[in-house]
Amino acid sequence: MTGMRRFSLLVLAATALPLAGCCSLARLFCGPDQSQWVSVDFRSPELAVRTFLEALRRDNATVAYECLSGRFRESLGIDESMTRLIWPKIREQNPGLHLAGYADVAAPTIDPENLDRAGVLLNVEGTEIGIHLVRQCHWEVRYRRPGDEIPAEVRNASVGRPVEDLGSLLKVELTGEESEISDVILKPLRVPHSNIDKIPLANISFAGVERTWRIDSVTTFLPNR
Fold first, then answer.
1. What is the DSSP string of 171-191?
2. Could you give the dihedral angle defined by the CA atoms of residues 77, 122, 114 and 12, in that order, rounded to the nearest 10 degrees?
3. CA-to-CA distance for 76 and 167, rounded, in angstroms?
4. What is the DSSP string of 35-88?
5. What is the pLDDT of residues 135-157, one digit of tens each?
6. Cα dist. 133→6, 23, 89, 145, 213 in Å?
7. Which of 150, 149, 147 is nearest to 200 (CA)?
8. Of 62, 80, 105, 165, whose CB count within 10 A is highest?
9. How far is 83 from 55, CA to CA, in rounded Å?
10. How many other C-beta atoms are found inside a 10 Å radius of the C-beta of residue 103?
11. Model confidence, pTM
């Protein structure tokens, strides 16, 4: 998608309402927000952006890193061990982004030609910030490692992998017996479990495939002077 097309997609989104509460100048000196944290959630473009803005407001680099797509992380040159580097890199590219944590989130615009892409346009006191999102897919299995000899802090384990093709793990078939009912079939998930022979069925808390939204790029459109 070209830059002009991306911009056209974002312009269709409703712009955010003016900032409320204390003035933005005061926020420069207030430090991270200590109010109640909203849930980290990536089930929709709007929830992913809200999570990212919450992380901005609280200066939480770990959650902000989790909000980014793999491609965006690579373009920033960061990995999980370098989350603190996210702030200078993103802020350098997008002046004023640190104030966006207080912007209201409007309804996203989904690309009609690619339902796995969306855009949200924020208006931060005259500066427009475009949030471009991509929907990703991954499988995950969460389980409790059996054995009292295993330290409590590592008993709860999670294994997962990105999925490029959803059809490689899921398929949908009509039952052939009743109308308006389909079978959603999950193919086998191969889960490594080091230092234990097997995972008891009772120890598995979740197994499945999930599609979530992540931020793929951030663009600041500076106002004309």
1. EEEE-SSSTT-EEEEEPP---
2. -150
3. 30
4. SPPPPP--SSHHHHHHHHHHHHHHT-HHHHHHTB-HHHHHHHT--GGGGGGHHH
5. 999 999 999 888 756 666 667 88
6. 11, 29, 18, 35, 6
7. 147
8. 105
9. 12
10. 23
11. 0.70
* C-alpha R_g of the chain: 21
Q: Report yes or no: 124 and 130 within 8 Å, Cβ to Cβ.
A: no
Q: What are phi and psi of 15, to 5 degrees?
A: -75, 155
- In this prediction, residues 201-207 reach a mean pLDDT of 93
| Pairwise CA distance, residues 22 & 30, whole Å | 10
Alpha-carbon distance values, 39 to 10, 50, 51, 106, 193 (Å): 25, 9, 7, 18, 29
Q: Is 76 left (phi over 0), alpha (psi -120 to 50) or beta?
A: alpha
Q: Count other C-beta atoms under 10 Å from residue 54's C-beta.
A: 20
Residue 4 is given by DSSP the state H
* Distance from C-alpha of 26 to C-alpha of 102, rounded to nearest angstrom: 13
Place of tokens 């999930």: 210
pLDDT tens, residue by residue, 124-140: 777 788 999 999 999 99
Q: How would you write 81-145 as a 3-class SS string?
A: HHHHHHHHHHHHHCCCHHHHHHCCCCCCEECCCCCCEEEEEEEECCEEEEEEEEEEEEEEEEEEC
